[in-house]
Amino acid sequence: AQVTVRRKKLAVFVSGGGSNFKSIHEASKRGSLHGDVLVLVTNKSECGGAEYARNNGIPVILFPKAKDESNGLSPSDVVDTLRKFEVDFILLAGYLKLIPAELIRAYEKSILNIHPSLLPAFGGMGYYGMKVHKAVIASGARFSGPTIHFVDEHYDTGRILAQRLVPVLANDTAEELATRVLNEEHQLYVEVVEAVCEDRVVWRKDGVPLIQIKENPNEFR
């Protein structure tokens, strides 16, 4: 079915290399994603994600203000800036700072995050990056995988939108598991952002978000 909805304007938040950001931007450029990344927000102005943004003509904003930086923005400044860009959705892609309540209120049900475990397991403050994969292996869990969820005022507790299973092998290292999970992250995040940009996310009466299947809107994934 041909997409007739308005093309969405996206802001991406990163703290590191930004590989998920790159996957989303590339999907936008090749036309599979009905949206455009208009601005990148980071708390580390020299991170790989920020460098990629600059190389691709995407404005970079520093938030929150770091001790050794003079040009960081306050929460209200960030809200004002995103509104000037007319941003529809905020995508957290390895952004390690807690999102302030002011921003969550301004973009209710419009901020997504990706986490490298099957939430609610192995989430919360301190669970990020390789720490997650080490904890998964140490627990004896047989499965892991990425979770995409809407963002609330706490770490990793918002409503889950999508997940994908990745087996934890008997002799896995954290690095090996991380590589397999990241491969799935890149695919899953693009698929979810495609759905978001096409207005295929619907909310069940109990507040759980579901993704309509493109070919059959009466079915959900």
TrEMBL record:
Pfam family, one: Formyl_trans_N
Family designation: Belongs to the GART family.
First-listed, main subcellular location of the protein, grouped into a coarse class: plastid
Pathway where this protein functions: Purine metabolism; IMP biosynthesis via de novo pathway; N(2)-formyl-N(1)-(5-phospho-D-ribosyl)glycinamide from N(1)-(5-phospho-D-ribosyl)glycinamide (10-formyl THF route): step 1/1
Keyword presence, Oxidoreductase: no
Localisation per UniProt entry: Plastid, Chloroplast
GO MF annotations in UniProt: phosphoribosylglycinamide formyltransferase activity
Ranges in a coiled coil: none
Any one Gene Ontology cellular component term annotated for this protein: chloroplast
All residue ranges annotated as the Formyl transferase N-terminal domain in the record: 8-193
SUPFAM superfamilies named among the record's database cross-references: Formyltransferase
Record carries keyword Repressor: no
Signal peptide: none
Protein name: Phosphoribosylglycinamide formyltransferase, chloroplastic
InterPro entries from the UniProt entry: Formyl_transf_N, Formyl_transf_N_sf, GART, GART_AS
Any single GO BP term: 'de novo' IMP biosynthetic process
Organism from which the protein derives: Cajanus cajan (Pigeon pea)
PROSITE patterns to which the protein is assigned, alphabetical: GART (PS00373)
Organism superkingdom: Eukaryota
Enzyme class per UniProt: transferase
EC number: 2.1.2.2
Reaction equation(s) it catalyzes: N(1)-(5-phospho-beta-D-ribosyl)glycinamide + (6R)-10-formyltetrahydrofolate = N(2)-formyl-N(1)-(5-phospho-beta-D-ribosyl)glycinamide + (6S)-5,6,7,8-tetrahydrofolate + H(+)
Keywords from the UniProt entry: Chloroplast, Plastid, Purine biosynthesis, Transferase, Transit peptide
